[in-house]
Amino acid sequence: MLLCNLDGVITPEASISVLDRGFLYGDSVYEVIRTYQGIPFALKEHLARLRASAAYLYMTVPWSDEYITQEVQRTLAAAPPAEYYIRIVVTRGADRRIGLLPEPTTQPRLLIVLMAIAPEPTLSEQGIRLTIAKRERMSTAALDPAAKTGNYLNNILALLEAQQAGFDDALLLNAHGQITEATTSNLWIVRDGVVETPPTTVGILPGITRATLLQIVADLGIPHREVILAPQDLARASEGFLSSSVRLLMPIRQVDEVIFPVCPGPVTQKLWQELLAVMEKAALAQIQSF
User: Fold this and answer.
1) Which residues have C-beta within 8 Å of that of residue 204, sequence separation ≥ 6?
2) Please, is 1 exposed, middle or buried when counting C-beta atoms within 10 Å of its C-beta (0-12, 13-18, 19+)?
3) Which residues of the chain fall short of a pLDDT of 70?
4) pTM for the full predicted model
5) Alpha-helix runs per DSSP H in 131-265
6) Which is the most buried residue in 6, 31, 60, 199, by most CB within 10 A?
């Protein structure tokens, strides 16, 4: 099931100009959110990151957070009851002719897309098989991965490389050989009883689920740290997982020749339950505020 809201018009299908800069150049920003019990989780945090990404691209978002939230809710209300993947896209808009420099009169466009997802989040028992890609992560000095833009070729090519090699996804290294993240997810491992994840300085998207998990491990008193990881560090991991907004946690079964001892591991399972509890609490609070 697909439903779109383009510039306030809700429709099963939407189209943009072939001159739109998001289509021509990936000159756009976006966020992906999932609903839990019908409520968008962490929408406020996602909208804050959307504005930060737009500012990085020298792009103005002319709509208030309140308006975008209203349009998300209006689009959800027009859809059948279900859990949804929500994609919010702000493209810089369509110029009158093709050229790299945006025209002063170009107006941004707002697109909201809903796609139905599984009614209940489930922690995978099979896990995911990863490879370390030969392709480097985009440099923070070139196009900072902290900005969630429509330019995703770096990630797409790494994912294609991984799948052609028989793996599900890829981990990308930066120019210093440090692990950054997977193509659409942040990386976590448990090593010597400590939950570890790469710091933002290595060149990653600061995930909203990542931030939630960092708060959870702090609240629970679980030893944790943001630390630079090299590929050889994975051999000492007792378990690992990826985090993202839609699938939440994905246990790691294997990275190249390294097979993790347990999948999903006990820490992964604990954090899964705690994350669902946080989402449940947030959904209940939102419902009570209506």
Assistant:
1) 145, 146, 180, 181, 186, 198
2) exposed
3) 290
4) 0.96
5) 153-164, 208-220
6) 31
